[in-house]
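Hi L.,

You mentioned the student needs an example of a multi-chain input paired with its predicted structure. This one should do, with 290 residues in total across all chains.
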Amino acid sequence: MDAPRSAERRKSDTLARLERDADAWIATADVAGSAYLLPLSFFWDGIGMIISTPRSSVTARNLGRGARVRVGLGEVRDVTMVDGTAEPVDDKQTKEAFAAKHGWDPRKESGDYVYFRIVPERVQAWREVNELRGRTLMRDGQWLT
Amino acid sequence: MDAPRSAERRKSDTLARLERDADAWIATADVAGSAYLLPLSFFWDGIGMIISTPRSSVTARNLGRGARVRVGLGEVRDVTMVDGTAEPVDDKQTKEAFAAKHGWDPRKESGDYVYFRIVPERVQAWREVNELRGRTLMRDGQWLT
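Structure written out for the whole complex:
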């Protein structure tokens, strides 16, 4: 097990992951309290994680409720967890940036795709058990470091 | 992109993953419809995925509701999704097998750990978009192949 990373290092690792990673696990829930989970492509626009999914999908319906979302990035032994809320996004600049990152443009799909921005309220990052202490990097939308 | 796998191959890949993988993403929800997500170690006992978590944890509280759970295994581009329900487990044999697999025995932790078996009702597996067709391998608890 490596030595635990400093708070600064964890924050920079987390920001690098948000900017570089292509996909994340998106956990949502419906009003009845059933959980849903799917890996989706995302784009970090500096404020939140932009995702795109068909309007009729379970994820879109759940995100449309405005309830809390939880996102897992990375590997199970090098994890970043993001708790946030989702807001609909409909501007051209965001959609262009999403397509540029992924080489995939949901606007060209036959289905009716919608976009959401998942805005982090809490961010946690840890690798092994020795990093559980100090894992919270953002609280109430504010970076702690 | 590789050619899509046959149903038989996806099933054998999925069973191999259930037996071999150490961790999975466990998505649960509370009664208010807020999603929770965490990577946890699991052990496949042939019927379901055995997990262990502190009794006071969000995951344990959500699983105790008996609502639907959704589990993601593998990588975001080689994914297995399991929908199921969780039942409490309290037999010694299961706890021994869990500890033997992981070299980690929750009974030796200071906290009060409980065990659940997540029994699959639906299993889906796909790698890239060309495997979305035929991704459902189990429905209503029955393997389709």
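You could point out the following to them. The radius of gyration of chain B is 15 Å. Chain B has a mean pLDDT of 94.

Best wishes,
N.
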